[in-house]
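Hello,

Following up on my earlier ticket. Below are the two sequence lines again, exactly as submitted.
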Amino acid sequence: MKVREINELLNTGPVICCDDDMEFDIKFGFASDLMSDVLALANHDVVLITGLTNIQTIRTAEMKDIKWIIFVRGKVPDDITVELAKENGINILCTKETMFRTCGILFDHGLRGAEINR
Amino acid sequence: MSNEILKLHYDIATGDYLKAGEASSNIKKALMQLGVDNKIIRRVCVASYEAEINIVIHSLGGYMDMNIYEDRIEIVAADVGPGISDVALAMTVGYSTATQGAREMGFGAGMGLPNIKNNCDELTVDSSAGGSTTITMKIYFK
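Thanks for your patience. The regenerated structure is below:
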């Protein structure tokens, strides 16, 4: 799914940082507010959907080579979090939709879930 | 015993959620500079980051050492206490003793030690209640 499509479906507005490549193709989605669950992911080419906007979300994405994050429920990251995302080339989108609706909308339009290591 | 190529040392402070992850971030950058395979780097990073977070949220402070040898990467995460009373229970998926503060930062899923185990070729956890904890993680290049 193209970033442009996600942007339109979730009304996310502009990419907060850092990449404005709206044609970038995202393969899988994963939703959690618990970062150790994100660290258990088998895939890294995912968009992370979360309501947790603090610096550890970016650290977690950095460790897993996750390059796209959608912050849900109208949450907006603070400057320190955005700065760390910039340093690591991690792209942030924000939507007012809930996590459940965000997942539902994206799944409905073809994005599939990532696997976790067990 | 194979030769040591690189050794890095990081002191980890208890309760510092802002700096938590910096050591693992530095380890990642060092491994990238050395041209280590990305899949290996991701495994090292998950193990290292979980161990670092454990020191921050559960311990009274500690350190992490990363040693790179010809055949493997070895990370030692050690703290000064208070120790794990039941290591087998701590290894159980979903079991957590994380504080409210840690949970607000996104931790406490009960996946820390299981994630470390899943990403290491060899793992030893040396701990006792009231004492220190030392976790040794080995990942081979193979």
